[in-house]
Amino acid sequence: MNVVLWIIAILLAAAFLAAGLMKLLQPRTKLISSGLGWAEDFGDGTVKLIGALEVLAAIGLILPAALDIAPILVPLAATGLVIIMAGAIVVHGRRKENQMIIANVVLLILAAVVAWGRFGPYSF
Predict the structure, then answer these.
(1) Is 97 exposed, middle or buried (0-12, 13-18, 19+ CB in 10 A)?
(2) Sorted alphabetically, which keywords does the UniProt record give (predicted)?
(3) Domain map (residue ranges) of the chain
(4) Which secondary structure element, helix H or strand E, spans residue 70, and what is its range?
């Protein structure tokens, strides 16, 4: 199970690092025109904050355990992603973006599995 948790954490980290960097590095108007319609509902600072939180969570899923420095940060980062995805589900639900809700639920479940495993029976 430890290997499975590592694989899930790596996949989550890659996805959220890419998504977060995209939100941090591109202007909100470009994000909206590229299909992220939800960004219309938020200001520039909020979109950048979401991107920064996603990048920090991606780092927190891997580095603390890999470097054996404060490995408790791994399940905390996963829990943070669960919260972010819960918020994303609410936003996409209000906008009736059902495809995005499905993706957010999958990511939420994967992050919850990592949080459960690393807080519980497979902690570092």
Answers:
(1) middle
(2) Membrane, Transmembrane, Transmembrane helix
(3) 2-119
(4) none
Backbone dihedral region for residue 123 (phi beyond 0: left; psi -120 to 50: alpha; all else: beta):
beta
pLDDT above 90 coverage of the chain, percent = 96
Q: What is the pLDDT of residues 71-107, one digit of tens each?
A: 999 999 999 999 999 999 999 999 999 999 999 999 9
Token pair for 100: 């995005």
Residue ranges of alpha helices (H) inside 26-124 are 28-33, 44-67, 73-94, 98-119
pTM of the model: 0.93
d(CA 34, CA 121): 41
Handedness of CA 82, 87, 89, 92 (dihedral sign): negative
Q: Measured between alpha carbons, how far is 91 from 39 in angstroms, rounded to an integer?
A: 10
Rounded Cα distance, 12 and 2, in Å: 15
